[in-house]
Amino acid sequence: MNSDRPSFATTHWSKVWQASKDDSSGRNARQQLCQQYWYPLYAFLRRSGHDPHASEDLVQGFFADLLAREGLQHADPRRGRFRSFLLTACRNYAANQSRAQRTARRGGGRQLLSIDFDPERAEQRYGREPIDEETPERLFQRQWALAVIDTALDRLASEYANAGNPQWFAALRPFLAPCDEPPSTETVARQLQMTPGALRVAIHRLRRRFGEALREEVRRTVESDEELEEELRALLAAVR
């Protein structure tokens, strides 16, 4: 391996985890990390056979344990992608808890991040997952991809809101992906008081910005452009 290759510590999330626990920006970013990945990990644990309460406790305990031992500082990029590192670490944590014949109490007395974890909503969401032979790992990959997409969409919504055009994003969002009953361009143009030509330009710009936002989110966890393209292909394959 090339010794000049940047270490995992150069990636966004590793820097986030190494930030001082007293640093507010670091805490907020760590909270964002946990918020983005809690449901993919929860779905993985549920599909692996854990009940709802145990899955919730394991996810909370896993993030608390990761924070307490500053686990991301020891991640090795040669062993796989960031999402794979998290999945493996969570699987090992759950196995350790099972071997100890106990479910970790929420946080176990350690510092906890504030995660918007609604058990009822999580279980309702899990109940909508396809009932098939999808493995826990594949379910995790799909939910990881959806979480990244949702984060990118939230960024776009904030950008349009900050620009004073929240209604534009709400009206144009259906054009980002196929839907069962897409609105007609004529209807949306009238709604936004735009000409059809101006609407087509607005849709093109939104799609381009969405692509950029998606790449920016994925880039947080990779080291090179090559890995970025690989992760984007994996993301698209997971939701296809």
**What's the number of extended β-strand segments?**
0
**Which term fits the overall shape?**
elongated
Unreliable residue stretches = 1-10, 101-106
**How many helical stretches?**
10
Write down the domain tally. Answer: 2
Largest sheet: none
Helix-strand topology string? HHHHHHHHHH
Based on secondary structure, the structural category is mainly alpha
Rg result: 20 Å
User: Which strand-content bin applies to the residues?
Assistant: under 5%
Tell me the span between the first and last alpha carbons.
Answer: 33 Å
The averaged pLDDT comes out at 79
Q: What portion of residues is helical? A: 55-70%
Short description:
The protein is an all-alpha fold and 240 residues long. The chain contains ten helices and no strands.
Topology record:
Elements: H1 12-18, H2 24-47, H3 52-68, H4 82-99, H5 119-127, H6 136-162, H7 166-172, H8 185-191, H9 196-219, H10 225-239
Helix pairs in contact: 1-2, 2-3, 2-6, 6-7, 6-9, 6-10, 8-9, 9-10
Description:
The protein has two domains: 7-129, no CATH class; 144-240, no CATH class. Mean pLDDT is 79; it is low at 1-10 and 101-106. The longest helix is centred in the middle third of the chain and has 27 residues, at 136-162. With 240 residues, it is an all-alpha fold. It has helices spanning 12-18, 24-47, 52-68, 82-99, 119-127, 136-162, 166-172, 185-191, 196-219, 225-239.
